[in-house]
Specification:
Elements (H helix, E strand, L loop, with lengths): L1 H11 L32 H13 L33 E8 L5 E10 L2 E6 L1 E2 L5 E2 L1 E4 L28 E4 L4 H17 L30
Parallel strand pairs: 6-7
Antiparallel strand pairs: 1-2, 2-3, 4-5
Length: 219
């Protein structure tokens, strides 16, 4: 009886559920490399040409007489050999492409100064005007920024331009050189001059002009 009861209990006891098979380990997902930061777009062709021209000119190899430049050459006070510049000079270099009617089509502008000895690209707006630059007046003592006093609002060349990268505008005499260079390039383009023509340092004496008319003119 006891055996029958024990057998009944064993028969009535629910069988343990079969162990579930463990799912296979999920295949390792390939690691997605982190996205690289997008590279800045290359500068426009004209800007690239200006940057290459600055590098080729090697302005860091210039020699300067410094405060005695007015006595050079020839004066005993002129240092010789001339010392190399302590910092990159200030240069505002721009180029404008004109159409056949003389209208500006596109432009490029780069700046060179001690803070950017390799050149700094200037962003131009739709009117081809420089943006992001705070132009400061020329002060000879600031050519070498070492120990120079910080700029003040009084140094601004434009009272409406109070933000941007500080840039000390080059000595104004360079503006006259720019006009002469532009006129010469136009003469070359017209065929009136040759860029290979050798020009003497001293002006050649003007040929005499035959006088026609009376020697005396009415006042």
């Amino acid at each position: 009886m006891t055996a029958l009861l024990l057998a009944a209990l064993l028969t009535a006891t629910p069988q343990a559920a079969p162990a579930r098979a463990r799912p296979a380990a999920a295949a390792a997902k390939p690691r997605v490399p982190a996205r690289a930061r997008p590279r800045p777009p290359p500068p426009p062709p004209h800007t690239r040409v200006l940057l290459d021209a600055l590098a080729e000119a090697a302005f860091d190899e210039l020699h300067d007489a410094g405060e005695a430049e007015g006595r050079c050459p020839g004066d005993p006070a002129c240092p010789w050999p001339l010392p190399r510049v302590a910092a990159a000079p200030h240069l505002d270099l721009a180029v404008i492409r004109l159409d056949a009617d003389g209208r500006a089509m596109e432009a490029a502008n780069v700046l060179l100064d001690p803070a950017a000895p390799g050149g700094r690209v200037v962003t131009l707006d739709q009117n081809l005007a420089a943006t992001g630059v705070r132009y400061r007046r020329w002060v000879p003592e600031r050519r070498d920024p070492a120990g120079a006093a910080p700029f003040a609002d009084a140094d601004d060349l434009s009272p409406t331009r109070r933000s941007g990268v500080d840039f000390m505008a080059p000595y104004p005499a360079s503006l006259f050189k720019l006009l002469v260079a532009f006129h010469l390039e136009r003469r070359v383009a017209m065929g009136a001059l040759s860029p290979s023509r050798v020009v003497a340092e001293a002006p050649a004496p003007a040929p005499p002009v035959p006088w026609e008319g009376d020697l005396e003119a009415p006042v």
